[in-house]
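$ ./design --mode recover --in tokens.txt
reading tokens...
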């Protein structure tokens, strides 16, 4: 990446910052083509950024910055398997998991997927005895992605009952123990590193639960999903039940790999392949489309416009569909662990704000809880609505109609505002929203949607000169927690007091 003369990133943004700041309604009034200019259709989804402050001039300026950052070159390097994760000296291989990437990475992903499929077939054929329950334990990317997939697509799929336990809080596991039968449970241990304290403790606890219930060979009913197969074997999983994936697949990008096992076993292999194909369609769109027509690029440009120019500190995604209620927490890890950094890829301090804080929720519930702040609060919060045209329920169609109309009305209200004499009852309006409208929620579209978010993060990271693929920021807290549990460690007076009060000395 090119350094600018000032040695920071400020100058590169001056063209974007200097653009006139016009109101949304003016932008619509001055350009009859605005809607078509700022909306597009990809992979069964309609994207609409017309109610953001993006303008043609802004997109052109972002394209120029993308050129300066060699976005296209960096994108091609990612797909070619170059080591663009420079701090860890690794390739970035999650696209290879959907067969878009360097030939050797794709070949390895295919081989590993075949291994996963064979094991699922064997489990279905009864090779591990009767299995009705799948208890998956993992955390972060080893839980959020699979959880999103199973929750979004698993309604009505009654092949297995799946629970995903991430928290080390024993209550989370205890709740599942109350529902599952240890004699017909398959334990799935998901950890890229196979060293994560929470996951390993949870896995030990499940084995113990099986042992105490008199299960003959609990380790015989464990499947490991990991990029560290030797550690899984050392822990006690037979090599035949270890499903590996490559080191180049980052945790928060890993649901396409064996980490997607709970979704594949719950939904069936055909659905899992559809998910991969949907993501691959988005990969091809991202690889082959000019930036001003690229969904991930336009979304990232809007994100950057608000964080860098309007200094928005957060952005919110509201899923107007119960099936997507786990999308906001999934996006929190994807976006904040990827681009919540303070240094550039070349090790200089970042002189710009890094990514926005991602938050959100489910509509219409959120309208009755947090939308007050969105309509009248002093923070600027770009809002994204995600909705699905085809209803997921069989009840009175009025439900789905109300759901969608509410989403659309909120966007209209945030833009239009309302001006009355009483300030308490006035709405400033001009508040930006974007909408992603899916034709239907199926594996293909969900795969494409998730891949869209991944590439959007990549574009934003590249323009900010951030390496989106490491996460050193999580290490210090882990080290301190380990030191605390070992005991004998000197902490500050407050921490020492808390440890003492909780009786943990
Ligand atoms: O601590 C953060 C993190 O490393 C995430 O990046 C990752 O998704 C999660 O922990 C779980 O890690 P692992 O899959 O190695 O258990």
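writing sequence...
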């Amino acid at each position: 990446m090119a350094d600018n003369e000032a040695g920071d990133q400020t100058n590169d943004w001056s063209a974007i910052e200097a653009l006139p700041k016009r109101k949304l309604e003016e932008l619509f009034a001055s350009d009859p083509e605005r809607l078509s200019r700022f909306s597009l259709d990809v992979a069964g989804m309609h994207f609409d950024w017309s109610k953001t402050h993006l303008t043609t001039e802004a997109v052109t300026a972002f394209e120029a910055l993308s050129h300066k950052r060699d976005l296209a070159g960096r994108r091609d390097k990612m797909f070619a398997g170059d080591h663009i994760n420079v701090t860890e000296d690794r390739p970035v291989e999650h696209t290879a998991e959907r067969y878009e990437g360097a030939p050797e990475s794709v070949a390895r992903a295919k081989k590993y997927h075949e291994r996963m499929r064979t094991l699922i077939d064997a489990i279905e054929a009864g090779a591990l005895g009767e299995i009705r329950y799948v208890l998956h334990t993992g955390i972060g990317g080893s839980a959020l992605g699979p959880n999103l997939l199973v929750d979004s697509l698993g309604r009505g799929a009654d092949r297995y009952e799946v629970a995903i336990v991430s928290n080390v809080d024993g209550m989370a596991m205890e709740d599942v123990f109350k529902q599952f039968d240890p004699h017909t449970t398959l334990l799935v241990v998901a950890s890229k590193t196979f060293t994560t304290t929470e996951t390993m403790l949870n896995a030990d606890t499940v084995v113990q639960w099986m042992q105490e219930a008199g299960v003959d060979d609990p380790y015989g009913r464990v499947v490991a999903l990991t990029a560290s197969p030797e550690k899984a074997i050392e822990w006690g999983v037979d090599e035949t039940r270890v499903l590996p994936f490559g080191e180049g697949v980052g945790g928060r990008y890993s649901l396409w790999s064996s980490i997607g096992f709970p979704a594949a076993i719950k939904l069936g292999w055909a659905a899992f392949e559809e998910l991969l194909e949907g993501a691959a369609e988005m990969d091809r769109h991202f690889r082959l489309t000019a930036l001003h027509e690229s969904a991930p690029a336009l979304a990232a440009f809007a994100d950057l416009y608000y964080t860098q120019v309007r200094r928005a500190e957060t952005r919110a995604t509201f899923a107007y569909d119960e099936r997507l209620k786990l999308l906001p927490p999934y996006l929190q890890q994807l976006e904040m662990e990827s681009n919540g950094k303070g240094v550039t890829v070349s090790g200089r301090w970042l002189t710009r704000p890094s990514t926005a804080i991602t938050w959100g929720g489910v509509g219409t519930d959120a309208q009755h809880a947090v939308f007050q702040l969105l309509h009248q609060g002093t923070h600027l919060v770009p809002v994204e609505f995600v909705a699905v045209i085809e209803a997921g329920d069989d009840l009175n169609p009025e439900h789905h109609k109300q759901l969608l109309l509410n989403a659309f009305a909120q966007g209209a209200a945030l833009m239009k505002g309302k001006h009355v004499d009483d300030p308490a009852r006035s709405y400033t309006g001009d508040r930006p929203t974007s909408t992603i409208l899916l034709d239907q929620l199926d594996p293909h579209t969900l795969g494409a949607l998730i891949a869209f978010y991944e590439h959007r993060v990549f574009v934003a990271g590249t323009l900010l000169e951030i390496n989106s693929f490491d996460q050193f920021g999580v290490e210090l807290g882990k080290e301190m927690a380990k030191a605390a549990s070992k005991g004998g460690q000197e902490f500050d007076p407050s921490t020492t007091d808390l440890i003492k009060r909780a009786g943990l000395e």
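exit 0
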